[in-house]
Structure formats: C-alpha cells, structure tokens
Design a protein that fits this description.
Length: 246
C-alpha cells in the first residue's frame, strides 16, 4: 500500500509534487528545497548543463566514496588495502547505486524530458540521481546528514560485499553459515538458460535443506552460482536479493 504521506505519481506530476515525494521517500526535509530540485533535474529539461544534476553527481560520487571507505576502514580492521578496495568498488558501483534508486523509486522523482518518460530509466540515470541526492543532502545539512542517508541504504551492500570477499567468495560464506546455523549444505541447481551458444546466460538457484532462495543469472555457471549464493546470504539476513536481473 502506498504511504499516504508520499504523493502519488504519474506522467503529469509537477516538479513541486516530485519534490515533496522525494523528501518523503528519503526521509529528509530540506531547508532549501531548490538544492534538491537541482539534484532531481536532468539535463534534458535544464536550460543549461550547469543547471542540471551533473555537478551534483560529481560531488555526490566523492562523498559516497569517502563515507564507504570510512565505514570499511572502521568495520573491518583486519582487511588489507586490496580487500577493502575490492569491496568499495562493488559497493559504490553503478549497479548498486541504481539498485538503491530503484528500491526507493527515485526514478519517479526525476524531472526529465517528456521523451524519457516513455521508456525505462537506464541504470546510469538511476545511479546518477542517487549520487546527486547524496550531494544535495550534504550541501543542505552537512556531512553527518549525508552519512546517515548513505549508511542507511548502503550498509547492507557493504556487509554483502564483505562476505563475498571474506574467504574468497559468496559460496564459501554461505557454506559456513549453512553448516553452522541451518545444519545443511547448499545445493546449486540450474533452472534456466538463455541466449545463443557464444553468449549464453545461465540461471541458478541456491537451495538449503529444501528451502530455495532467489535465483541469479550469470555469464557462466560458476558466476551464476556465486550470485545465487549472494542472493541467499542477503535473504538470510532479511535483505533484498542483489542479483535478481540478467
């Protein structure tokens, strides 16, 4: 059910309503709403490039990286620089930022040209608006407000990525948890294949003591199994599966 405090959305929604919707979604009220409007304005409707959210994206990317690095440094004191770098690259990737935007439905808050409303928002656009909002919160409320917003949505991704690198991969982490807590061993089952022989995709599901988790696609069976294990790890924590699309 739609939150009654969050205005409804359709293609005729005004920028002002989108502004209110976004503030309700991100749980942050701006002192200066024009800062958020800049973060939501795509270059397709801005009168100049400098009035779009592109500059906000630049700033937000750096703030996001800094907050994630600080969190990793403090949370994983035994990890070496190379391990921390790998985890950070996963967590701040376009895939993860776009995933969070999609979960929050930030695409409905973007102010874009009419032509773009008729098609699905590309991953790059979803990633960019997340970074732009990070910057807007930083400008309006300071670093601690931005940090709170980032960690609220990114900490589950940090834990998932850290589990994937600890011990080498998602599968080994899931194996340990399954044997210790679930008294079983993960089984990986191929459930679907798609595409020509030279570019085939495989869908695999992880199963533990009869319980199946969200399936995952991969470019080969090994990658699909790793991602299926990542989905299982997330769901065991009560989090959304990260690898549900092809």
């Amino acid at each position: 059910m739609e939150n009654p405090e969050i205005p409804a959305f359709d293609e005729t929604t005004s920028p002002e309503v989108k502004l209110e919707r976004c503030q309700a979604i991100i749980d942050y009220r701006f002192r200066d709403p024009s800062v958020l409007m800049s973060a939501l304005t795509h270059s397709s409707v801005a009168s100049t490039r400098t009035q779009s959210n592109e500059r906000m994206e630049f700033l937000g990317d750096s703030i996001l990286g800094m907050v994630v690095c600080d969190c990793l440094f403090r949370s994983y004191p035994d990890y070496l620089e190379g391990e921390l770098t790998k985890i950070k690259s996963v967590v701040v990737s376009r895939r993860v930022c776009a995933k969070i935007s999609r979960q929050l439905r930030l695409d409905e808050c973007l102010v874009v040209g009419r032509g773009m409303m008729k098609s699905a928002m590309p991953r790059s656009l979803l990633s960019d608006v997340f970074e732009a909002i990070v910057a807007a919160i930083f400008i309006d409320g300071g670093l601690e407000s931005a940090r709170k917003f980032i960690l609220t949505h990114i900490e589950p991704e940090i834990r998932l990525a850290a589990d994937g690198h600890h011990g080498g991969n998602f599968k080994s982490s899931l194996q340990q948890i399954a044997q210790k807590d679930l008294k079983g061993t993960p089984v990986y089952r191929l459930v679907d294949e798609h595409g020509p022989d030279h570019s085939k995709q495989f869908q695999v599901v992880a199963e533990i003591t009869g319980k199946r988790f969200a399936p995952a696609w991969g470019r080969n069976k090994k990658e699909a199994e790793q991602r299926a294990a990542g989905n299982a790890l997330a769901q065991l924590r009560g989090e959304d599966a990260p690898f549900t699309s092809m």
